[in-house]
Amino acid sequence: MKSSKKIVCSVLALSMAVCLGACSKTAAPADSTAPEASAVAAADVKIGILQYATHASLFDCYTGIIEGLKNEGYVDGETCTIEYVDGQGEAETNSLAASNFVSNGFDIIIAIATPSATASYAAAKDAGIPVVFSACSDPVGAGLVESLEAPNTGATGTSDSLNFDGQLKMIRAFLPEAKKIGVLYTTSEANSVSQLATLTEMAPDYGFEIVSVGVTDASEVATGAAALIAKGVDCINNLTDNNVVNNLSVVTNAADAAGIPIFGSEQQQVAQYGCVASETLDYVALGVTTGEMAGQILKGADIKTLPVSVITDSKPVYSLINLAKFKLELPTDYASATNVDEK
Fold first, then answer.
1. Of 76, 74, 71, the residue nearest 25 (C-alpha)
2. Among candidates 251, 270, 273, which has minimal Cα distance to 186?
3. N-to-C CA span, the chain
4. 156 and 211, same domain (yes or no)
5. How does residue 161 score in pLDDT terms, banded at 50, 70 and 90?
6. Do 47 and 147 have their domain in common?
7. Residue 27 within any structural domain of the chain
8. Is the pLDDT assigned to residue 96 strictly greater than 50?
9. For a pLDDT cut of 70, what percent of the chain falls above it?
10. How far apart are CA 7 and CA 203, in angstroms?
11. CATH number of the domain that 89 lies in?
12. pLDDT tens per residue across span 134-150
């Protein structure tokens, strides 16, 4: 996150005395405008934000959420109190944080990524506390909503729908002779299972075979990456799998050593984690929509009828530095794409 961000560390008082990690709060960007304080709820409104793990794309969501809340008039320390918890990629930590928000009477929980959303909804549904999720690829499959159009539960939010056509077209352009695309995924993440199914179905249209290896938790990522490489894949395509992304350096280290390029599912995986290119969604914009939806619910919008907002717009990004590692050249069709090295 940006260095100007104010970080406040605290330990959540829980009966199991579990440390939930560093908790941080962020003021919304100074150039945003917000309605007058009289038009929004009183300053005692409590908003809990639970982020599944410490990785850059989820921080982008968080940054956008703060901006979206401000657009609706909810500014930390002025018209509301915002408490942020990083779940450190641990299921128990996320569940405990969600339970803490509920027991302390928070008015709404904003959950970043599917595992945080399911933990929050499980904790909050009987208490009637609304849950607004961000970056949940398959909220129906995760049991958060009945349908995208009519959630009819105590949860709604934003879904990140990956542009697999654009991604497969990109991989074919960068690797014209490639045949096998490897995918490492977490078997318990509903979004990853559904994304893998979609990618597997579409891949033959571009002359690819999908070779997948499933893992159950962080401890299996290294062996899973090794197993994938041993299957003779020409490249690896990363999904928005939270467990894998949270341990992506393990995968990139193994793939780099084997001379196998990785294509990311969003910009930060290219900019910070060594992937060569990606057809990427804008996760800050996705967060803004999430924050605005939360603000609308706080003002009285019916969460049961507020449709899930599916974000589909994407753009290609690449890294010349990472391409050079594999002696790959930028295809002519991607000459106007964004080079993240220049950001």
1. 76
2. 251
3. 15
4. no
5. confident
6. yes
7. no
8. yes
9. 87
10. 43
11. 3.40.50.2300
12. 999 899 999 999 999 99
What pLDDT score was predicted for residue 270? 95
217 part of a folded domain: yes
**Beta pairing partners, 209:** 180
DSSP conformation letters of 123-184: HHGGGT--EEEES-S-TTTTTS-S-SS---SSEEEEEE---HHHHHHHHHHH-TT--EEEEE
User: Tokens for 145?
Assistant: 């909503």
94 within some domain: yes
Structurally, how many domains does the chain consist of? 2
Containing structural domain, residue 130? 37-161+283-314
Indicate if 218 and 303 belong to the same structural domain.
no
Q: How many CB atoms lie within 10 A of CB 259?
A: 10
Determine the Cα–Cα distance for residues 64 and 73; give it in Å rounded to an integer: 14
Residue 21 pLDDT grade (very low, low, confident, very high; cuts 50, 70, 90) = very low
Instruction: Report phi then psi at 24, rounded to 5.
Output: -130, 150
Question: Structure pTM?
Answer: 0.79
- Looking at per-residue pLDDT, the higher value among 220 and 34 belongs to 220
185 shares its domain with 229 = yes
User: Rounded to an integer, what distance in angstroms lies between the CA atom of residue 312 and that of residue 207?
Assistant: 24
Residue 120: Cβ within 10 Å count = 32
Cα dist from 310 to 160, 181, 290, whole Å: 6, 26, 11
Helix residue ranges, H only, 90-220: 91-103, 114-124, 164-174, 190-202
